[in-house]
Write a structure and sequence with these properties.
CATH architecture: 3-Layer(aba) Sandwich
Radius of gyration: 16 Å
Helix content: 40-55%
Distance between the termini: 12 Å
Shape: globular
Number of strands: 8
CATH topology: Rossmann fold
Bound molecules: 2'-deoxycytidine-5'-monophosphate
CATH class: Alpha Beta
Length: 218
């Protein structure tokens, strides 16, 4: 079984997809984490985020993969575990600039398709249903209001020990939505075969149960 989970930042996609992966015995692939890992490396190498050519080469030459260590899935960038680094405010602010480049996206989509080839997976991102798993058994579009998503992002940041301001977080989310929705390829959108799930005022368990009931009913 292959499940695509798309939606805007902060809607709860990763949390929900991770739980569903466990319950349905699927491999979980967080495609946003892959764009974040590449952004982390680009920032470290001081590559300008508008330098298409350099970023394209960076994507081609970088190995990004997931490994299960001490019961938790970690993301690695050229053998360095970057799971914590990729959640920093700096990466948050810059990742959609990098993700906007079409040639780089082609390289990433190729890597992501390879990861999913002949496997039972649940993948979350923006273009999973459209570009990575167009034949997925289920395509969910998980969304929530901007206010709710900003509040959740604040809680995540605090939990990770980062300080930020609610209005700034909300403004950045709005900008990220705009940039994710308006780019040339792999933009964020509801597809004809997407099942839309709104998570406003819902507990994670409620959303998971809702999705499981849709899958079981089919
Ligand atoms: O889901 P996230 O917030 O970790 O995603 C980080 C960024 O990567 C976000 O700006 C959108 C981008 N992204 C993308 O363009 N395509 C994907 N398949 C996944 C994420």
């Amino acid at each position: 079984m292959q499940v695509a989970v798309d939606g805007p930042a902060g809607a709860g996609k990763s949390t929900i997809a991770r739980i569903l992966a466990e319950k349905l015995q699927l491999i979980y692939i967080d495609t946003g984490a892959m764009y974040r890992a590449l952004t982390w490396k680009a920032l470290k190498l001081k590559i300008a985020l508008d330098d298409e050519e350099k970023l394209y080469n960076l994507a081609k030459d970088t190995s990004i993969y997931f490994l299960q260590a001490t019961g938790k899935q970690g993301i690695y960038c050229d053998a360095v575990e970057v799971s914590d680094f990729i959640r920093s405010p700096d990466v948050n602010d810059k990742v959609s600039l990098l993700a906007a480049h079409s040639r780089l996206r082609k390289v990433m989509v190729e890597k992501q398709r390879e990861m999913a080839l002949d496997k039972s997976v649940i993948m979350d991102g923006r273009d999973v249903g459209e570009c990575i798993l167009p034949h997925a058994d289920y395509k969910f579009f998980i969304t929530a209001s901007l206010q709710e998503r900003a509040s959740r992002r604040m809680i995540d940041l605090q939990r990770q020990g980062h300080k930020d301001d609610y209005d700034r977080v909300k403004c950045l989310l709005r900008k990220r939505d705009e940039s994710d929705s308006s780019r040339e390829t792999g933009s964020l959108k509801i597809l004809n075969d997407s099942i839309v799930i709104n998570t406003d005022r819902k507990e994670v368990e409620e959303v998971v149960a809702e999705i499981l009931s849709i899958i079981k009913d089919n």
